From TrEMBL:
InterPro entries: Transposase_17, Transposase_17_sf. Residues 7-121 form the Transposase IS200-like domain. Transmembrane segments: none annotated. PANTHER family: TRANSPOSASE IS200-LIKE DOMAIN-CONTAINING PROTEIN, TRANSPOSASE, Y1_TNP DOMAIN-CONTAINING. It comes from Flavobacterium nakdongensis. This is Transposase IS200-like domain-containing protein. It holds the Pfam family Y1_Tnp. The lineage of its organism: Bacteria, Pseudomonadati, Bacteroidota, Flavobacteriia, Flavobacteriales. It comes from the Bacteria.
Length: 182
C-alpha cells in the first residue's frame, strides 16, 4: 500500500494504535515522554492544532512546515518511543500497527469536526471527562498559559473561545445521546 506523501502547508490527521489494540502508554510518564519526543522531533517541521493520547492509540492534527524532513521526524519519534517503551517493559518488537495513518484534511468543516472528535476521545473511549483529561490539547487551547499549539488559529476556526467550548459540549451531548439508542 502506497502511503500518502505529507505536503508542505497541508493539514493532516496523524494517528496510530498499538498492535492488536494493545496498550502503548501504560503510565503518565510514558505519555509525558511521548509528548517530549514529539516536541523534540517535530519542532520546526509541523504545527499542531490538536492532539490526544489514549492508552492504546493517539491522534495529532498537524500542518506540515517542512515536508522534506517530516516523515523522517515522525519515524524518529515513533522509533525512539518504541525503543524506550520496550526497554522499560522488557519487551521486543513492534508496538504500533504498521505505518502511522495519515489523512489530509481537505476543508474547514472536516477540521472543526476532527478537532472535536480528537478532544472527545477520553469521554467516548473511557467515559472520562474530556475537559479535564491531561493528555489532550483541549485544556491548552482554552487556557491562557503559553503553548506551542496553534491556539489562536483553533479559536478563530470556532470564532471564539466560548464557541469552541460550546461546540465541544454540544457534540459531546449529541454523541452521548446517540449511545443511549445503540
Amino acid at each position: 500500500m502506497k502511503l500518502e506523501v505529507l505536503e508542505k502547508d497541508k493539514v493532516y490527521h496523524i494517528y496510530n494504535r498499538g498492535i492488536n489494540s494493545e496498550t502503548i502508554f501504560n503510565s503518565v510518564e510514558n505519555k509525558q515522554y511521548f509528548l517530549k519526543l514529539y516536541s523534540k522531533y517535530l519542532e520546526n517541521k509541523a504545527d499542531t492544532f490538536a492532539y490526544c493520547l489514549m492508552d492504546n492509540h493517539f491522534h495529532f492534527i498537524i500542518r506540515i512546515v517542512n515536508e522534506k524532513e517530516i516523515t523522517q521526524a515522525l519515524s524518529n519519534l515513533f522509533n525512539s518511543y518504541v525503543k524506550a517503551f520496550n526497554k522499560q517493559n522488557n519487551r521486543t518488537g513492534s508496538l504500533f500497527e504498521k505505518h502511522f495513518k495519515r489523512i489530509q484534511i481537505i476543508n474547514e468543516t472536516y477540521l472543526l469536526n476532527l478537532i472535536q472528535y480528537v478532544h472527545l476521545n477520553p469521554k467516548h473511549h473511557l467515559d472520562l471527562d474530556y475537559k479535564c483529561f491531561q493528555f489532550s490539547s483541549y485544556q491548552s487551547i482554552i487556557s491562557d498559559k503559553p503553548t506551542k499549539l496553534l491556539r489562536e488559529e483553533v479559536i478563530q476556526l470556532f470564532d471564539s473561545k466560548d464557541n469552541f467550548i460550546y461546540c465541544h459540549d454540544f457534540k459531546n451531548e449529541i454523541l452521548s445521546e446517540k449511545h443511549l439508542f445503540e
